[in-house]
Amino acid sequence: MQQHGGGDASQRIARISAHLNPNKSQMEGSPSLERSTCRAKGGSPGFKVAILGAAGGIGQPLSMLMKMNPLVSVLHLYDVANTPGVTSDISHMDTSAVVRGFLGPQQLENALTGMDLVIIPAGVPRKPGMTRDDLFNINAGIVKTLCEGIAKCCPKAIVNVISNPVNSTVPIAAEVFKKAGTYDPRRLLGVTMLDVVRANTFVAEILGHDPREVDVPVVGGHAGVTILPLLSQIKPPCSFTSEEIAHLTSRIQNGGTEVVEAKAGAGSATLSMAYAAVKFADACLRGLRGDADVIRCAFVPSVVTELPFFASKVRLGRNGVEEIYPLGPVNEFERAGLEKAKKELAASIEKGISFANK
Predict the structure, then answer these.
(1) DSSP string, 215-240
(2) In this model, does residue 291 exceed pLDDT 50?
(3) Residues marked as catalytic
(4) What span, in angstroms and rounded, lies between the C-alpha atoms of 189 and 170?
């Protein structure tokens, strides 16, 4: 039996310990192994993904689900607290993505360098009685700081913004990237996928269909009346009574509040949000890979309406958003909803822009 030299063995031990505690080896400047060589053997060729806010209520299930995605080769988990534990836990999953954890602002740049996709669920969740807008003061600052890091370390990455209020945080991100000279509107997307997931589920319940066979476009924004399901464009085509339309629209718009109230102070929609975020991130990665006809709804820089940002169907590709689709035919109920949505959306967008520029 071949004996491995002592140097070889210590190299292997160093590799194992670097996997177990990547932060320690990095912070203490351990000379034994550079982080870049700390790869699992047979690691899949795929994309490098960073999750900012990985230890939070959305971040943890999101991190777990992204570790399961075969398109991910390297998964960077960043947060200001508790990342070592989450990283250790998720790194034991026997899937091909290599997981590394990063703790605190001083490690943000290392977390972001070389990433293809950055997902941002960081921030505080809603409590009962709060609107998404009540989160603004805390989450706006967090998103601004994280986006400054993205502009510096991975300006070409696709950025998926989850942190609420999305209607304001996406405009903040855009302003940060503009100031840094790295802004590419195709690469910035607000994740409104949960509205679509809810719409598909609630409509399927009424129709007695499998939700996976239902597709409801949801346009506008990602809060209250700005969430506008276009039930007239549902696939497979079907018609609803005006009572059903009013009920479904209201339930889709208030789906988040339904969960906040049911959790009674213990958080907001985290598990369904993580599921929706991964569904959207997977679409972004398939677009990056070059798959054809990857179409999803997202809140993006847009000329579909007179507003600078708007959620509608987009086609995803190698540069992020390759095409933004027009709204298509809308009925009278939806037209009235659209006017209401635009009014509130305009104020939220302006709020984000002025925050970023103050």
Answers:
(1) B--EEE-SSGGGEEE-GGG-BS----
(2) yes
(3) 222
(4) 7
